[in-house]
Amino acid sequence: xxxxxxxxxxxFLGDSVATFLLGAALIMTFLAFNVLFLVWLERxxxxxxxxxxxxxxxxxxxxxxxxxxxxxxxxxxLLVPAAADRVGYLLxxxxxxxxxxxxxxxxxxxxxxAFADVxxxxxxxxxxxxxxxxxxxxxxxxSNNKYAVLGGMRSVAQxxxxxxxxxxxxxxxxxxxxxxxxxxxxxxxxxxVWYVLLQPVAAVIYFIGITAETNRAPFDIPxxxxxxxxGFHTEYSGMRFAMxxxxxxxxxxxLGALGATLFLGGWLxxxxxxxxxxxxxxxxxxxVMMWMRWTFPRLRFxxxxxxxxxxxxxxxxxxxxxxxxxxHGAG
Length: 331
Fold this sequence. Notes:
This protein has helices spanning 2-13, 15-49, 65-75, 86-95, 98-104, 121-129, 132-142, 146-177, 182-191, 195-198, 200-213, 225-228, 238-263, 274-293, 301-330.
């Protein structure tokens, strides 16, 4: 059916444009259902950790509660602060999601890239994932709200700090596999062992880094409601507000899938199809993120920066140097 639809679109728009539109539609459809599921799952995880039941009224076990919330947000009035920079204010909710959508198309699902096969896919993903912070800062600055500006500035400092250990931990995997192609990284683990066994330090650093990059507790400093009302999206309402959470939960899945690709063998696994294994591993990482959110208190900003610059980055550098020496000695 999808092949016939692609051929029909190609007759009007050309083959490359038809492939792009169909691929983007499939990714967006899946990501939309993913966000609805993750919001429901987070409520249930939080409830069970707190010994509550969570949403139960809308649908079986509250499964339709997030759908009801989405419909509520769709019906809310979209307000723009009188003193806001209108162009930046309106563009920020759109730009915050575009890099994550591009990254999602680069994750290999099963033997081949999902929608693109990039020789330096890991480098492209790291570059794109850092662009989200620009939209976050744009949202805070253009809102003309001091709390939103502080949230945006915190987000910039946080992402800059934690992108470094994420990249260094990923480079340790590159040294082992001798490639930046994500598909080849998974295939290299097929012939040896999963890299989480060879690089446990890098795996832990990567997980802490992506938890901070996605603004998840205990690293949710840019959205610290006890200090900044709601942080960089304080002045947003309705679906503009929802777009920031859409991007956050999508980024959790994408970075979780990337972590599964780097350290847990990607799509590798018995019996089940490759994409199912990849999603199971990614959702397992997301579950741990949710577990952490409802277990640990929020860090102070100085503690967050100290953790990155004085602990994670030195540890990642030492791990990378040791890995390089071992790989060179083995070669």
